[in-house]
Structure formats: structure tokens, C-alpha cells
Amino acid sequence: MMLFYQRGNGRKKLEIFKNISLKYLHLILLILLISCSEKTDKEIEGMVWIPGGSFYQGALDNDTLALLHEKPRHLVHIDGFYMDISPVTNKKFRDFIKETGYITTAERDVNWEDLKKQLPPGTDKPHDSILKAGSLIFTKTKNPITNFRDFSQWWKWKIGANWKKPRGDNDIAAKDNYPVVHISYEDALAYCKWADKRLPTEAEWEYAARANRGDAIYYWGNSHDSLRYKANTWEGQFPFENSKIDGYENLAPVKSFPANDFGLYGMAGNVWEWTSDWYNVNYYKELLEDTAACHNPKGAEYGFNPNNIYAQEKVIKGGSFLCNIEYCISYRISAKMSSTPDTSLEHLGFRTVAAKNMIN
Ligand SMILES: [Ca+2]
Questions:
Q1: In angstroms, what is the span from residue 349 Cα to ligand 1's centroid?
Q2: Distance between Cα 249 and ligand 1 center (Å)
Q3: Positive or negative CA dihedral for 145, 151, 157, 161?
Q4: Has this prediction a pTM greater than 0.85?
Q5: By residue range, what is the domain housing residue 29?
Q6: How far away, in angstroms, is 280 Cα from ligand 1 center?
Q7: Based on the domain organization, do 6 and 72 belong to the same domain?
Q8: How far is the centre of ligand 1, averaged over its atoms, from the C-alpha of 69 (Å)?
Q9: Count of domains for the chain
Q10: Average pLDDT over residues 201-225
């Protein structure tokens, strides 16, 4: 190369040298960029790498669909992590049960001493026959309703309902690729321990669902018209009549609807998913005043739900097959609800995540 330069005239040599220098500079920069960027080359079966970045968590002030606990919106930074492509399926959960012999919350009789701590003092103990192992299942109402605050109109305690029998009297033999449901937070943690994974924080979950779409309301953008093609929800008059326009009245198999821009399926509708955060309605306000806490936020120190002051609840995200535009539009990215760690429901599952250093 040096010989080549020596044979050219001075000006030409300088230009060539500049060009080559620039070329090498680009190459060096490229190598530096590659070496400094997060390594994403390791493929983890069933998971996708979510590259780290910053995003605004929560809903815009002028978002009229959002509930107060989705505001104020605040800037958050998330480090990269691996996330399950879809919620944990019946098949995966069965593998866990076979290896560990774990018995889920819904398969154990209810411990009244534990339950009464979550209820107003003086609440009468239910009859022992009610405290048998079971879970909450959804039941359509016989007529349209007007009081949407009374969940007991469509949630029923079903003895014998659990992940193996989601309706109490049916089984999941042919439903390996359906999301597992009737999973309590405690059950999800036990699975994570077995799988060497963990639950996502609320911020990680929302960041992954948003997938760099800025202020989009839904994972696919802002159009509600395409809902039927994007998520399994309740279309019709909740909880009385389901038009099944999206093809499913109840649960859908995982990957029945498109993935978001990070390649994640089921981030809207079908099943709610546990996060590791305590549900505290004041947490977003605290984050606004503590920007240091906005780097990988882990959630509030304790739960606080003014509508359920005796219980500590965890944040759940994503909405379910029961979400409806007139009642619970929780297939929106910023939407959330809460549940106590020992609760299991027919529309509640989970997915796991893993930091890079958790992967062998
Ligand atoms: Ca549906």
C-alpha cells in the first residue's frame, strides 16, 4: 500500500489517503459500535431480545381512555432483557409441574386466616364448603347489566377450577398451545424459580409492549377499527353477549394474532399477565420527582389501592379476552389492573423475562 502512494503525485496521494483513512475510520467506528452494543447474538428458545432504551411510561394527560393510575406519564430507561415470545403455555407449565410436583394456589383449600387479612375487619368466615380448592371463572350474564362495578355478576367461585381444568369440569388435553391460566402470582414465581427466569417489572412489560411506537395507544398504532385482527377481546355487549368477531369467545391459542414490533405475541387481550411491581396508585407521581428511580424502575415499595385498602396487590398488564371497549379497554399499552398475589382467575397468566446475566 505504501508503494502505491509513493508512485502517485502528491495531491492525488493525499486524496487517496484521505479516502482510505475515512474508509478505515468508518470500519473502526463500526467495530466499536458492534463491540459497545448489547450482544443479541445468543438465541434463547422461546424468547426474544428486547433492546434497551428510553420510553414514556403511562398515558398522555389528554388521553381520555386512560384511567388516573396510568398518569402522569414519565420518562423511563430500561436495560435490554430477554422476554418470552408469548405467555407461558399449558405445555410449558405441565413440564414444570411434572419436574417439581408443585401444587398451585387454586389446587389448595383456601386458608381463611390468610384470606381474612385482605378483607375488612369483622368479615364473616364463609362456610367451609366454599373454602375448598377452586378458582374464579367467568360466567356470562343472562341479561344486559348497568352496574359494572359489581364483578360478582360475572365472576363465580368454582370449586375444582384450576390450570388443569380452567372451567372446573373440562380439561386441557388438547390445549397445549393455549396460555396457562388460573395462575397466582405465587405460582408464577415458583415457575420462574424452576426456569431460572423472573417476572417482568411493569415498566419492562410496558416498554416491550410499546416497542418504540412512541405515544401509540395500541401495540399496532391508534386505530381501534382493526382490533378484531390484532387481539382476542370481548366484542359485543359485555358481559351478556359476545359477537366473536375476532374468532374467539374465550381463550385463544398463543400466537393467534400478530406479533408486535419486538416480535412479542399476545401483548394485548387474551390473558392478563403478572408483573413483579406492587400496585400503588401514587407510584407514577413519585417517579416524576425521582428521576434516578426511573432507570429500570422496580415498582413501589408496597401496594396501595384505595379501592381495596386491606390487601396488597400486584400490577397485571395486557388485558384479556374479556376486555371490551365499553367496559375495560385494557388492551391499550398503558392500561393496567391489579390483583392480590394469591388470586387466580380464568383470564390471568404470565410470561417470563431474563437479564443477560441470567442466561448461561
Ligand atoms: Ca374474542
A1: 17
A2: 5
A3: positive
A4: yes
A5: 1-39
A6: 30
A7: no
A8: 26
A9: 2
A10: 97
